[in-house]
Amino acid sequence: MPNSIRSAPALNPQNYYRMPWSLTDNGVSWLEVTSQCNLACEGCYHENIRNGHKSLVEIAAELEVFKKNRKSDCMSLAGGEPLVHPQITDIVRVVREGGWKPILNSNGLALTPDLLKALKKAGVFGFTFHIDTSQSRRDSHATVEPQHNALRLKLAEMVAKEGGMVCSFNQTVSSDSLQQIPEMIRWAEDYPDIINTMVFILFRAPSLSASYDFFVQGKKIDLYETYVKTSWGGNRNLNAADLVEKIREGDPSYEPAAYLNGTVDPNTMKWTIASRIANRKKGFGFVSPKFMETVQTFHHRFTGKWMSYGPAYLLKAGRSAMAAFSLFDPVMRLLFRRFLASPGSWFKRAYIQTFAIIQPVDILADGRMNMCDGCPDMTVHEGKLYWSCRLEEVKKFGTFVSAVAKADLAGEGTNRKATAKAGATYN
What is the CATH number of the domain that holds 156? Predict the structure, then answer.
């Protein structure tokens, strides 16, 4: 991307396991249950519609579309803010009875112990809490990400106290908050027993792609009709390599094991997944690509689905995983040797904790949109599957927006006619 600065070494996808997720057979799907939210996050691309709740009939219809077109292990319940939906426990129950693991993607603001109990009874599998400094929250005031850690820990402890559910955190990262990543990594690694996953989502905005014009069916449009301008997002796009470099400042042993590539650029790691085995006192290292491949293969063989959000009992089985895989996997053998060299850890439970990086849409030099191939966050709109991160374009314009490099429109590019006619296509 012309305005992207590659400050970190490029990641080579050939070194890692390509997750087998596809459009029709995926670990996750994305169900938007409401358009209403109780927060206004800087740079949010969703329209906040008061009382914009889908009915149970509408939700059942969308679940049928998923069931017909897309096999998934988990169903992310999102919005808006799903906890403001007055029938959220009924939705969780319907999703669980439909054969999916319900994961609530929430900012956590409306979560109470009583609601948590009701959601668990309804069958919720876990939570992914989105907390970062893009939010103006009444329950936590922060100007830098580590200042939100007390709130993150409070929510993780609430989920852990109720028991039997997984707990993850999402955090959007901009070029301005990049320097805070090492401290966030060190903090999260102190709690592998109750913080199962940390997901870092790289911020994207049209203002960071200033060398393009945007079109819908040949008509030039102002993309800020959909994506609101914000200064929170910093002054440049980040890529996965930038995050890897910063994560390694917090934990030099960090090493990815799996990825999802881009739809256009095969060298892009759009989802980068790394899992470590540790207890609260000591980390033994990050699992191998072979470990990831074996877990996915066995889960699909015996359940018919690719796994996402491992169950709580599996996330507590780090010691058994190291021992079993040490018989044939050199990387896991090294982890197990570190475990054996730490007698104080022999009788402590070892947990599997995951760190993931999501690199959203990238606009390539020729205007093509490099999306996540095998995207786990596909959603349903009017009976069809769409990338959830770009659903607002479809709602606003009836189709995806296309990009054309400004130089091409001025006649300076080599593909002016092709791109000006319809805009560069999304792949």
Answer: 3.20.20.70
